[in-house]
Amino acid sequence: MATPGSLYVTMQPQPGLSLQQFHEWYNNEHGPTRLKLPQIFANGLRYRATDSQEPEFLAAYDITSMPYLETETYTCLRANRSAREAETIDQVDVKRYFWDQVLSKQSPLFIPIEQLADEEAEGLTLVAVQLTPKEADNSIEEIQKWYGEEHMGLLSKVPGWLRSRLFKTSSLEKGQPTTFIALHDYAKTNGLGGAEYQAAISTPRTKELYAKFATMSSRRVYSLFYVFGQASRDLQNLSQLPSATSTFKSPDSRTFTANSPSPVVESYITTPDGLTIPYRLEGNPDPKAPTVAFCNSLLTSLHMWDRFVDIFKAKRPQYRILRYDFRGRHSIPSPPQPSTLSTLADDISNLLTALRIPKLDTLIGVSMGGATTLKFALTYPEKLGKFIACDFNAVSSAANTAAWKERIAVAETPLDDGSAGIKKLAGQTVERWFHPATMQKQDTVAWIQDMVSANDIEGFRYGCQALWDYDMKPQMKECTVPGLFVVGEGDGKGALVKAMDGFRGQLGQTGVDLAIVPETGHLPMCEDPEGFWAAVEKSL
Q: Lowest mean pLDDT: which of 122-131, 414-423, 437-446, 502-511?
């Protein structure tokens, strides 16, 4: 039987540790590492004291079942911690508590804090009251009865009250005497100290409890300032660190941060079906900055946007920038499942949830990324302000499906020299994608050809199936998100220009504009980044 509870950690950084360094470590490494573990952590919440007492900082994690904290999945975190974590922890006075949940009461208006947007969550008040039972034989029972029969009910009348929970020393704390902690959640504006609150703490039964059965050993008041999930995202504190202390690579090399020449966080999320999706977050470090996300094409990586992002960051420094790699780029879930456009749209939604981004300002995608962009706009309109979909078709064809199957065969057939067939496919693909003028740019050809060659072959086999059998045209009239279509002049020797011009009028009530990038093919943002910027500038 599951035993829900809390991992409750108080922290006081020592004078030699800057707060920016302390927060960046916790937000980008320590907390997300825990939230990445499956099943164990329901959330991770960070609080700062408002009562002028120390320790100043609190991290509270709701645990789905406390015995999970004794499994190797959790205990190995400490054994395998990074050198940076070990060094930072040595500069923080830390106390960890394990609590088993005993009672819970919540307002009908209560929403789990991790489900709130940052603007809604930040500033919520937490009151933490620790009680030590007195020596009377029935003290533990009386404390629990008082909370359940009277105290929580009276607190629920306090304006702004959201939830009260009572915990006792966890069974994991073997040999420790039983103590209690009550955690009370309140809205930012609340009636703490008001008439209803005074009534709740001054009843005859309350006075009797403290006289006979319990001692209040601590009462702390905190304000919530950060909610984290499995995705590292703190560019703000990272941007304030000296370059020498900002660069970090996790022991598994899957999380990286740096502040030179500008702040960047690279890490990953795990989807509900167990797939790892890498991402890169950069740009404006303000956590409230609008975010623009990019979907790359099949067979390329998030770095296909590098040259355009350099322009975009210079022209539009107000934006955060999110890029990620499609499922199939590196691996596939087990057991393997063919990708669909719906799956790819869900992946974006899961990534945004992990990064606590409730709504994108703009989503930009090309090729399969363009189809995914439109699918996301149709499926999750509440999560998107506008979109730019490039070099894609709104419906698949039997001829296209046959072509993808032929390309899989090429990728899976080793070459005469023993090298992977995907290298041959890379050469064919780049020649098919690029405008003749681009084929003269050897650096661009080599850049994308190497990127295609590095794709996971099995991932390609299952990933490209998202383009085999789909038709978004029946849904397009329902689209409520404003958009723009963009296409390279020579894509498909001009055939895609005609195709996109043919269905652009079917989107929404009025259709969308189609911008054509001269002397480019299937990847205009790679072939001519300046030309692509000219096509999309007004939309951004």
A: 414-423
Rounded alpha-carbon distances, angstroms, from residue 29 to 87, 286, 333, 493, 524? 13, 19, 25, 48, 36
Question: Do residues 400 and 456 lie in contact, with contact meaning Cβ atoms separated by under 8 Å?
Answer: no
Q: What pLDDT is recorded for position 38?
A: 81
Place of tokens 């303000």: 286
Residue that is written with structure tokens 């780049």 in the block: 430
CA nearest neighbour of 185 among 131, 132, 107: 107
Q: pLDDT of 13-36, one tens digit each? A: 999 999 999 999 999 999 999 999
The radius of gyration of the chain from alpha carbons, rounded to an integer in Å, stands at 27
Cβ-proximal residues to 349 (8 Å cutoff; 6+ apart), any chain: 376, 379, 380, 383
Task: Identify whether the C-beta of residue 344 lies closer than 8 Å to the C-beta of residue 374.
Answer: no
Model confidence at 1: pLDDT above 80 = no
Instruction: State how far the alpha carbon of 39 is from the alpha carbons of 63, 71, 165, in Å.
Output: 9, 12, 21
What does the pLDDT read at residue 136? 86
Task: Give pTM, 2 decimals.
Answer: 0.95
Instruction: Report the C-alpha gap between 329 and 278 in whole angstroms.
Output: 10
Task: Count Cβ atoms below 10 Å from residue 437 Cβ, excluding itself.
Answer: 15
- Taking alpha carbons only, the member of 10, 6, 81, 79 closest to residue 40 is 6
The residues, ordered by sequence, that sit 6+ positions from 247 with a Cβ below 8 Å of its Cβ are 257, 258, 259, 260
The per-residue pLDDT for 417 is 83
- CB atoms under 10 Å from CB of 188, counted, come to 13
pLDDT for 245:
81
Calpha distance 131→213 (Å, rounded): 10
From the list 389, 392, 390, the residue with the least C-alpha distance to 482 is 389
Q: What are the structural domains of the chain?
A: 5-228 (3.30.70.100), 271-396+471-539 (3.40.50.1820)
Q: Are 118 and 287 in contact (CB under 8 A)?
A: yes
472 close to 503: Cβ distance less than 8 angstroms: no
Query: What is residue 246's predicted lDDT score, i.e. its pLDDT?
Result: 85
Q: Can you read off the two tokens belonging to residue 245?
A: 């202390």
Select from 290, 239, 234 the least CA-distant residue to 261: 239
In the structure encoding, which two tokens stand for residue 240, read together? Answer: 């304030």
- Residue written as token pair 């009550």: 182
Q: Please report, for residues 24, 122, 393, the alpha-carbon distance to residue 477 in angstroms, rounded to integers and kept in the order given.
A: 45, 38, 16
What pLDDT, in 10s, does the model give residues 395-452? 999 999 999 999 999 999 998 887 888 999 999 999 999 999 999 999 999 999 999 9
